[in-house]
Design a protein that fits this description.
By secondary structure, the chain is of the alpha/beta class. It has two domains: about 160 residues, NAD(P)-binding Rossmann-like Domain (Rossmann fold); about 130 residues, N-(1-d-carboxylethyl)-l-norvaline Dehydrogenase, domain 2 (Orthogonal Bundle). Helix content is about 50%, strand content about 15%. The chain binds nicotinamide-adenine-dinucleotide (NAD). It catalyses: 3-hydroxy-2-methylpropanoate + NAD(+) = 2-methyl-3-oxopropanoate + NADH + H(+). It is found in: Mitochondrion. Its EC number is 1.1.1.31.
């Protein structure tokens, strides 16, 4: 019988990830500020806690899946945060996409409590989360990575050790910068092709058998009706929010400033997603870049 595992942050991604742990036989104690999210997993057999501290006091492994750096700082270091009650020897696995320097700061604080913190951000989107097909990019010691592996492989198909704490975030930030650029590019190409008289499904089919093919065109096409079961065919509901993409692009721009690496397309993609966030698209899936271009005609 597996020992109790903690899970904090049960949103678009976390709810699926936690459910997969339950399915694989890990009993869970969970917390989220959203009562609805907690309720759904309680119905599936998870035990609810009223604070992150109450989670930490009962377990020796915790997964967190929160929106951004500030939420991670709150959940770990706030009043009734994880660090106020963490047990010695606990492994803390943060799968949120945040600033690598915040991951390093959390790792430092964890160490002072006799616990270990690793960053393990994910790629794959909500359907991959549901189907346990995520890719995890792990930053931390080899030992901690090995201790996290059974949990992470219950929620994903690829678990890659990137190096020291923060390097998982580094890999994730680079991936999402490329994803944002490819999503905007796919949206531009689809919109232009349709304006030129091409049927959207046919255009997508041609792109996907040609050199423009990418994840955004093939698996997550932004044009409504091209694919079933993706946010574009559900009024851009669910999925990966535009505000979260703008956040990740901001992290990439911070990183490019710190390392003096030119990222001109990343910078433009950041500004496009920033404008979308301020134009009513914040909570829509990031593939709504297609709709944003259409609306501006
Ligand atoms: P989300 O906003 O849907 O979920 C976040 C959850 O955290 C919510 O349920 C919210 O109530 C909870 N939360 C916020 N503050 C809290 C607090 N103080 N205490 C407890 N719970 C709190 O976000 P998401 O789409 O699930 O993404 C989570 C992370 O994963 C983000 O960093 C995101 O960038 C990353 N990510 C998302 C996707 C995706 O496709 N959605 C893919 C890869 C990575």
């Amino acid at each position: 019988k597996q020992s109790l595992v903690g899970f904090v942050g049960l949103g678009n991604m976390g709810n699926h990830m936690a459910r997969n742990l339950l399915k694989k036989g890990y009993p869970l104690v969970i917390f989220d500020i959203s009562k609805d999210s907690v309720k759904k997993l309680q119905d599936d057999g998870a035990k609810a806690a009223t604070t992150p501290a109450e989670v930490a006091s009962q377990v020796n492994r915790i997964v967190t899946m929160l929106p951004a750096s500030a939420h991670v700082q709150e959940v770990y270091t706030g009043n009734n945060g994880i660090f106020s009650a963490v047990q010695k020897g606990t492994l803390l696995i943060d799968s949120s996409t945040i600033d690598p320097s915040v991951s390093q700061e959390m790792a430092h604080l964890a160490q002072s409590k006799g616990a270990t913190f690793i960053d393990a951000p994910v790629s794959g989107g909500v359907n991959a989360a549901r189907d346990a097909l995520l890719t995890f990019m792990v930053g931390g010691s080899e030992t901690a990575y090995n201790q996290s592996k059974d949990l992470l492989s219950s929620m994903g198909k690829n678990v890659v050790h990137c190096g020291a704490v923060g390097t998982g975030q580094a890999a994730k930030i680079c991936n999402n910068m490329l994803l944002a650029i490819s999503m905007i590019g796919t949206s531009e190409a689809m919109n232009l092709g349709i304006k030129l008289g091409l049927e959207p499904k046919l255009l997508a089919k041609i792109l996907n058998m040609s050199s423009g093919r990418c994840w955004s065109s093939e698996v997550y096409n932004p044009c409504p009706g091209v694919l079933d079961g993706v946010p574009s065919s559900n009024d851009y509901k669910g999925g990966f929010g535009t505000a979260l993409m703008a956040k990740d692009l901001g992290l990439a721009q911070n990183a490019s400033t710190v390392t003096k690496s030119p990222t001109p397309l990343g910078s433009l993609a950041h500004q496009i997603y920033r404008i979308m966030t301020n134009s009513g698209y914040a909570d829509k899936d990031f593939s709504s870049a297609f709709k944003f271009l259409q609306d501006k005609k």
